[in-house]
Amino acid sequence: MVQDLLDKNSHIPIYIQIEEIIKQRIYLEEYKIGENIPSERELSTQFDVSRMTVRQSITNLVNSGLLYREKGRGTYVANPKLEQPLKGLTSFTEDMRARGMEPSSKVLRFEKIVPPVDIARDLMLEPSEEVFFVVRIRSADSKPMAIERTYIPVKIYPELDEKKIMGSLYALIEAKFHQKIGNAIQQMEAAIVLKEDSKFLQINHTAPVLIIKRTSYLSDGIPFELVRSTYRADRYKFISEIKR
Amino acid sequence: MVQDLLDKNSHIPIYIQIEEIIKQRIYLEEYKIGENIPSERELSTQFDVSRMTVRQSITNLVNSGLLYREKGRGTYVANPKLEQPLKGLTSFTEDMRARGMEPSSKVLRFEKIVPPVDIARDLMLEPSEEVFFVVRIRSADSKPMAIERTYIPVKIYPELDEKKIMGSLYALIEAKFHQKIGNAIQQMEAAIVLKEDSKFLQINHTAPVLIIKRTSYLSDGIPFELVRSTYRADRYKFISEIKR
DNA sequence: GCATATAATTGGTATAGACAACTATACCGA
DNA sequence: TCGGTATAGTTGTCTATACCAATTATATGC
């Protein structure tokens, strides 16, 4: 019995504590890559919890790709991926920091407008409803990386101003609605840079760019933000993970 | 009691049957968008199963984004997204059909080679290990859409030949190993087309292209395929979903 | 009429046990 | 040697129950 590792009176659920312990054991190579970890029944006696609780922990680790199960055989430690993609929704700031660069930002425009029809449709707005329109130059290590155009429905966050936009919009939104931020749909395409953008990005006016259009939704499916970013192709690759 | 909807002696697990029924009820607008579905306890008496079984169904539907839960309040039907991205790993064939176009393909090269070092590293191969190297022109509605270069370790599928590659590689692999195919890591970038590719894609030699490099893994984390695709930027957008 | 306490309802966590489906191994008999 | 069978161990599914935590509805008191 090694159940001293668990604090059953903690406010942290037991199944989360067990997840952490298993991750730790994989990291310490107590459980080796390609080999099987102890069976669910054995772990449940080790931790002195029910098998279903252990199952919940393992299910989460399987969903995150760290383990995989084979019926009738056991549960195994998966091979780690070479390059870990960014998980889930991240801001430009987080993205650049994860790449080891120092992000900075400059607001070119901040105003209230009636959006083009295609933007209004994507944000599920009536044609006359207003949005905040923000244009920013995004730099990494003081060199321009992207130009970013953001549309946020005024009705979602009427108090928004040029100062608030500097911080984390996601945190603001999550605090205002008690809902969490759900998911996003992203469109990616290649193009030649627009002439007006080329001078801000400091690239030739025939240079290629990666255009990413992202619509973000609250967990009830209401869209709250549309961002259209134009990245310098010579400085930016987008990395993502696809699950089957 | 409406439990006649369930076949408890079916080989299909009950929680999957319940998932299907709930999806059906959402589609029939018996459960409306934004409104709450019956509580877990009520559903468990409706179907005459335990609450934990209903919970398993609902958990899966929450993970797929169809429902969302709020503690103390209930479980709600989420807003559907405007454009559904392709779920999970898909082949060029599936991708094009989903876009309403008819895919075709032409093999330009099929040979066994020792891969460049960067490819070998991505596929976790020793420097001298061989791979199958396949170059294909991928067309949609008879117009060239992309040029695709695929690397498959010989040791993964030694019997591979030019005929087998025409069908579904994924199905072949899943049959050979009893493992399922796991996930993939994808890199996306914009560039100007290579001169040698421009004539196959029938575009100007200064045209932009979208380059997608994808490494696919078995569920134990072993890579089995690396594909580098060059898409015409004027004909192709990549759409994906990001979960928080 | 309005605040405040209380009860009821909801999803979140956890238990203990049962049987099914599948895999690997050992064993036996032809 | 080959092939079937028994057995033990694994994950997969499902039940019935219990208590906790967050929210909402209701009753109570001023």
What is the multimeric organization of the chains shown? homodimer
Determine the N-to-C terminus distance of chain A.
37 Å
Structural class of chain A: alpha+beta
Biggest sheet descriptor of chain A: 6 strands, antiparallel
Give Rg of chain A in angstroms: 23 Å
Number of strands of chain A: 9
Widest beta sheet: strand line-up of chain A: 3-4-5-8-7-6
Put simply, the count of helices of chain A is 7
Low-confidence stretches of chain A: none
Overall 3D shape of chain A? elongated
pLDDT average of chain A, as an integer?
87
Can you give the helix content of chain A as a percent range? 25-40%
Biggest chain contact: A-B, 56 and 56 residues
Strand content of chain A: 25-35%
Order of helices and strands of chain A: HHHEEHEHEEHEHEEE
